Amino acid sequence: MKAPSLQNTLLVTGLFTASFAQAAELEITVENLTRGIAFTPILIAAHDMESHLFVTGEMASTELQAMAEGGDISGLEMVATSVAADMATNPAGGLLMPAMSTTTMLSTEQMNTQLSLVAMLLPTNDGFVGLDSWTIPETPGTYSVYLNAYDAGTEANDEVRGSGTPGEAGMPVPPPLENVIGMNGTGVAASITNDKVHIHPGNIGDAEIDGGSSDIQNTVHRWLNPVAKVTVVVSE
Amino acid sequence: MTIRLLRMSVATALLIMLAACSDDNDDSVTEVPEEPEMRTFEVSVFNLSANQPLSPIAVIASDGGMLWHTGEAASDGLEALAEGGDNSVLIGADSTLGSTSGDAPLGAGESEMLTLSLEAGSETSISVASMLVNTNDAFSGITGVDLTTWAVGETKTYLPAVYDAGTEENTEMAGTIPGPADGGEGVSEGREALDAVTMHSGVVTADDGLPDSVLDSSHRFANPVMKIIISRVE
């Protein structure tokens, strides 16, 4: 009796190993590739196949809106916790400035095979850098992913000083950005033209610190995709 | 969600057809020619732009060829698509083995699924193309994707860049842009000086200081503007 049951156990273990991803130890480095855009606190989550922090072409969740308009990742953290995601929150300890990198460790559970990342882009109205459900490789090694800038589609890109509260117009301006953001712009876009999560069309800015249409500087605060590089080291 | 709903409606339609077949009590024996094995692909397209409707999406299966090459002049069919959003010339090319087209432009934030069925065995590649209609001659898509080795259930996602057809100057002026930002002319006479397909450098717009542009900041775009998901379902 003992031998067959042991064999069964081995067989079951073998199948389990073959058909499910392993728990993983990841070293994750996020590099801000822009020349003038800051990333607000970054949320990195490893989660299952069904979950997403955001999906292009779909409406933003209220939690995503709070992150994209004000840099508040607490709502998305709660959503990720509810699906038993493994998370690294705010690895840079605040803003990740242009050309800067931050590195964090992340231990993932077996079921959490997908890696996602979000952080608001400043200065923007509702722009964010995002990674949606990148499959964590099972083979140990070093992998790189380049990320695009997205628009949450929840706020008109007026590019003027305002609020980081969801549903309120304008851009939040935290102290580190106070001196690089202009004032008294009349506003660029007055309305939302795509209310789904989409590729950000980019900042316009203008050449006037005081006045003009935008409070953003056109020679400083633009970007082209990609805006971030994520390097993932999968340990043995 | 849209995709799932569409799939459900296809399944429903099949059920209705099967139900209709079951009523058939004809006893006569007829020679039915053997049905060729079909390969069916579902092509889902998402418009990820801020304010660039995409002209009716063309999905074209060809006998191996590419519908455009960077660095080379656009075909007349590509010119018609990229300047006026008219995909009929491109679809009507001799190399086309099968095609399908969206019925209407695909607005910013919208998505749709098109289905393409091909006889198995033919050496085929797929192309998907559409104009960014609030431009002079910008288009996006994929071309020459080999389908011959795809297994049933295989799915791939493409995030193509935006190309400039190189057939019309990017003046952004009133009367030159067929989309809702202008309502101007589609295909224009002649070709611009460069006359080659290149990567697009983006629109400038009046908000960015091009005085005669009919475009504003919402019409600007960054790559990619299109997400294409292709699945072989049969």
TrEMBL record, chain A:
The keyword Signal applies. This is Spondin domain-containing protein. Pfam families: Spond_N. NCBIfam families: NF038123_dom. It comes from Alteromonas confluentis. InterPro entries: Spondin_N, Spondin_N_sf. Residues 157-176 are annotated as: Disordered. Residues 38-156 form the Spondin domain. Residues 1-23 form the signal peptide.
From TrEMBL, chain B:
Keywords: Signal. The keyword Signal applies. InterPro entries: Spondin_N, Spondin_N_sf. Residues 1-22 form the signal peptide. It comes from the Bacteria. This is Spondin domain-containing protein. It comes from Alteromonas confluentis. The lineage of its organism: Bacteria, Pseudomonadati, Pseudomonadota, Gammaproteobacteria, Alteromonadales.
